Amino acid sequence: MYRIVIEREDDVYMASTIGKRVAEDFGLNKSQQTKLVVSIMELTRNIVFYAGKGELFIKPVPSYGIEIVAVDQGPGIPNLDQILNNKKVHSKTGLGLGITGVKRLMDEFEITSTVHQGTKVRAVKWFSEGQVSQID
Fold this sequence. Notes:
5-stranded antiparallel sheet; single chain; 4 helices; Heat Shock Protein 90
């Protein structure tokens, strides 16, 4: 498992580079790699812009997929239901579509957020049918 502390924009790129390498090492195709990397970038940018500091965990799961978990102790998301139901919500960095984008790009998606306590997102990109993980 990889643990990356996210505090600055440079950490976003480091996390996405590690994610791409893990995706390649475990045989995700180019489309899957792109979806994983874009999701990592969205989640880690959210940490930098909204929470200031957090962590990203990248974990290959044998015969299953690659799991990413983004955690912060930031302000939380007060309008999470609106965001998840595709209501137009303006954020300080855009239209507030990053989280729903991650939800669409990944095969599994869970989010919990509590105002003044933080946010946790777990998402998985499955290995394609017929792919075999190289993890012991």
